[in-house]
Write a structure and sequence with these properties.
mainly alpha; single chain; transmembrane helix
Length: 243
């Protein structure tokens, strides 16, 4: 039980609290915190995705139970997302951490800006274009693996913006995220080895403890100020790493 291990528990707890209240940001918050702590980009993303296997499994099954999942959307989104996740994880694991770190931080700043945009101007409804679903899943999987998070903000925002039903999109992307996260995690285990991911246990413990509280906060906390706060933390922390 080292101080680092307790730090990972705290990171997992806080990230899951926010994710429970917003429906997104566990990955980007965890990865941003780990990068700021000095964890290499590949390890930070790998640890986050191993922890997310547990949180996304619970979330996906819950959405399926409440019939929020569009199985046709899942069938088109999941394969592309899994392929993209494997590609992104392989690239990240084979690139020097110091080289990729600024680009990962720049991507996280973009995600922070996207969350900030969503706080003030939710995407409007447009004509549904089903042909866009696989490319969106592929890009979401690649970016999620490289940045350690972003599947929810990128995929959910894009599909809702294209006119898909909000409830079905949230349920389907949450259910699909488990498959994408599992693929990314297995790719990292093959390329990095499990010994490099032991600290993910701290994230898992913190996330599991926080899960019930996140659901309770949905009813009590105003969403817009929380989204603004999360985006500011992500942008500020990532910007400091770049400069």
């Amino acid at each position: 039980m080292t101080s680092d291990f307790f730090f990972f528990i705290v990171v997992g707890f806080c990230a899951q609290i926010v994710d429970g209240a917003l429906g997104m940001a566990f990955g980007v918050l965890s990865t941003t915190s780990l990068l700021a702590f000095g964890v290499p980009a590949a390890n930070a993303s790998a640890m986050t995705h191993v922890a997310e296997m547990f949180t996304t499994a619970a979330s996906g099954l819950s959405h399926a139970y409440h019939r929020n999942v569009d199985w046709r959307l899942v069938a088109r989104l999941a394969p592309a997302g899994m392929i993209g996740g494997a590609i992104g994880a392989t690239l990240l694991a084979n690139i020097d951490g110091k080289t990729i770190a600024p680009f990962v931080s720049a991507y996280l700043i973009a995600i922070g800006l996207l969350i900030l945009y969503k706080a003030f101007r939710p995407p409007g409804r447009r004509e549904v274009r089903d042909w866009a679903v696989p490319p969106v899943g592929l890009c979401g999987g690649v970016l999620d693996a490289i940045g350690g998070g972003g599947w929810g903000p990128v995929v959910t925002s894009t599909l809702v913006g294209r006119g898909h039903d909000l409830k079905r999109v949230i349920g389907s992307t949450n259910f699909t995220e488990f498959a994408v996260t599992l693929t990314i995690s297995l790719t990292f285990v093959v390329t990095l080895g499990w010994s490099e991911l032991n600290s993910a246990i701290g994230l898992i413990i913190g996330g599991v403890i926080a899960a019930p509280f996140g659901a309770m906060l949905v009813k009590r906390l105003p969403v817009r100020p929380l989204m603004v706060a999360v985006s500011m933390v992500i942008i500020a922390t990532s910007a400091m790493r770049i400069f």
